């Protein structure tokens, strides 16, 4: 069945929806009429990686399924058209309104195409397509490609087994002091010098982030006393290199150990257009939002993004939306971050094994919403379960960031979600 016939069918079932909205829905449902129908009717849709990789079992009768490859082609073409107008006001806002009237469904995936839709559905995210002037964007990408051999897979332990990350990482920074993450086993933590291209890019990003943060501080009602208000100046950048569509970044929140609570992280993408995903950390089956990140798009994760959401760069069969004209499937992201120097001066150590502790957030259990320190040993394959609550009372002059008393501990949930 071609796209027009699918649209006619949907239009017949849902006469109140206009065709553009239905087309958007169809595209966000990978061209499946059944999924689009379920989305409108409010049935939960499971749409994770495995499901997307297996041919869909159509639940609507009388629909002749088109071959998977053909659907993919249609979806890709439509996505390209839509992506070209990413900044234009999109009819998807109708879907957003529809979503607002209806509580988010579980396990559902929604693709947000326009700046307006992304920022309305995810108020802590700001997105700027075509952020750098074209020449500078090209220069940064050329520069990253010339350094690609310096990006390395990260090694870490999960449940005692040594694992390697799929994408490759390099840290750029001016100072050797930046201890990006003491957990990793390899040379990834030693920062590389920022090249002149990266420095230009950083200056423009810092400027943009400060403008955005100023507005954020003015607008946000609920200010946690440990939220940093001073000038935001990134002092290091974690770069990711995805050589092809197979390399990915699993669901995670960014490490807080050296950037502190409620951080701002500004991430700029270069090369192939991939999908970036966000979903609330809790509940675990909450709606997944897809955002397309074309070459030279800046995405700012404002304070509380790391506390409330997880993010990922999946390797779905259509997660490579568009290869880059010169570098094909290669994609780089540069994530600019500002370190929290007080942590460097006052590292927290484990009382049991004396190793450094890592700042984490608890997303489940009775201590949900608390910041805690966990012994680094646990992340290096050592079975030490050292644990302390974290405590942030306000930034200046702080020297004690840990407590064994829960009553004195800092709970981000209480300041963000009343
Ligand atoms: O590549 C991206 O867009 C995301 C990178 C990321 O999540 C990270 O560096 O922690
Ligand atoms: Fe991240």
TrEMBL record:
GO terms for biological process: DNA alkylation repair. Residues 233-340 form the Fe2OG dioxygenase domain. One of its GO terms (molecular function) is dioxygenase activity. This is Fe2OG dioxygenase domain-containing protein. Pfam families: 2OG-FeII_Oxy_2. Signal peptide: none annotated. It comes from Pichia membranifaciens NRRL Y-2026.
